[in-house]
Specification:
Elements lengths: L2 H7 L3 E5 L4 H6 L1 H8 L3 E3 L2 H8 L6 H9 L4 H26 L6 E5 L8 H15 L4 E6 L4 H10 L4 E6 L2 H17 L9 E6 L1 H14 L2 H4 L5 H16 L3 H7 L6 E6 L12 H4 L6 E5 L1 H10 L10 H14 L3 H36 L3
Parallel strand pairs: 1-8, 2-3, 3-4, 4-5, 5-6, 6-7, 7-8
Helix pairs in contact: 4-17, 5-6, 5-17, 7-8, 8-9, 9-12, 10-17, 12-16
Length: 367
């Protein structure tokens, strides 16, 4: 059937598409990906920045929204809702056929709210109520401020994609927030789900830079190993936390586990194989969200083998060796999380600035 289909049917990992463009909803491109085995879709402010500032696909709707009196920011969200609604429609059959296991589409709250608990919760609820679809995941950054919002959303029976996770310690906190939310929800839990998006390749980029700066033979030998090892240790945390009496009590009420989702899985270093961050993190009850170039690469020549828990002791040993070599992984995680939020904020602000320029042109017309 093909690598993408086998990835799920044989190994239990769901491949999702990490991109969205309006034309894909109309020219059949997204539908073709679904036919090839894609089982979900993720978006973020950087994706919408690229989509809305390339070509003219949004100009007609944008012009109408402006003429209806909407601000540039309000018009932006209306265009996002249009795209996400189309993607939700395209993935709805997967959601139905999988009995709610897959077919999800993720949309992120305003990234400027990443350190504002109440603002994040209010925005997340507004998105959830506006789109009101069973296959919607609202993305909330896994910051310290995001934890309470994640718990509250889950307690309300709303499904969340926790994004921008780089730290194993924070990942444990995110799982606990999800479990507390489930415990606080009064009724049937079968319609509530979630994923925790652990960012992979960016960790190697930063850790490798530090290892190269150390320049010892021990440090240099560890390049390209930290990100996969951290993902594999995260998977062990997932397996441990979603077992035992606490989880069994929730599962008896219909609860779904919060699956780990491997994000940022395109290979940044050309010295590494282009499917590295797919090949080495394959296993059941996981998701890997991939840009189309990496999806194409894996469909063509990816390695199909259960790898995510092949040697958990060695994965932990690699992280220990990286620390002994002189890299502070806690500081790396904190820096990457801060940079991730800042990058999404910049994309969001740059997009609004670009849309404001377009608005001036559309409203004033040719001179």
């Amino acid at each position: 059937m093909g690598n993408l289909v086998d990835l799920y049917s044989v190994y239990g990992q769901s491949p999702w598409l990490d991109n969205l463009r309006r034309e894909w909803l109309h020219n059949g491109e997204l539908a073709r990906w679904v036919e090839r085995g894609v089982r979900g879709l993720t978006s973020n402010p950087s994706i919408f920045q690229a989509a809305m500032t390339t070509g003219t696909a949004y100009e007609q709707q944008f012009s109408h929204l402006l003429k209806d009196g909407l601000s540039v920011a309000e018009a932006y969200w209306e265009m996002v809702y249009s795209d996400i609604s189309g993607a939700l429609d395209a993935l709805a059959p997967v959601h139905a056929q999988s009995n709610g296991a897959d077919g999800y589409v993720s949309v992120e709250v305003d990234p400027k709210l990443a350190h504002n608990t109440e603002g994040t919760l209010s925005a997340a609820v507004a998105i959830s109520e506006r789109l009101n679809r069973p296959n919607l995941l609202v993305k909330i950054p896994g910051t310290a401020a995001g934890l309470s919002a994640i718990e509250a959303m889950t307690a309300q029976g709303r499904s969340v994609n926790v994004t921008l996770l780089f730290s194993l310690a924070r990942y444990r906190e995110v799982i606990d927030a999800y479990l507390r939310g489930l415990e606080a929800h009064p009724g049937d839990l079968s319609q509530v789900t979630g994923v925790a998006s652990f960012f992979i390749s960016r960790t190697d980029t930063e850790v490798d830079r530090r290892l190269e700066a150390l320049s010892t033979s021990e440090a240099l030998a560890l390049r390209g190993k930290t990100a996969v090892a951290q993902g594999q240790v995260a998977y062990q945390i997932f397996c441990d936390q979603f077992s035992g009496p606490r989880w069994e009590a929730l599962a008896a009420r219909g609860a779904n586990p919060q699956r780990p989702l491997w994000a940022s899985t395109s290979t940044k270093n050309p010295a590494y194989r282009d499917t590295l961050y797919v090949d080495e993190l394959i296993g059941p009850n996981t998701v890997n969200t991939l840009p189309e170039t990496t999806l194409e690469a894996f469909a063509d020549h990816g390695s199909l083998c259960r790898t995510v828990d092949a040697d958990p002791n060695e994965a932990q040993a690699i992280l220990d060796r990286v620390r002994r070599a002189g890299v502070d992984l806690d500081e790396v995680s904190e820096r990457l999380a801060d940079e991730g939020v800042a990058a999404f904020v910049k994309s969001f602000e740059d997009l609004l600035e670009s849309l404001s320029t377009t608005a001036d042109r559309l409203l004033t017309g040719p001179r």
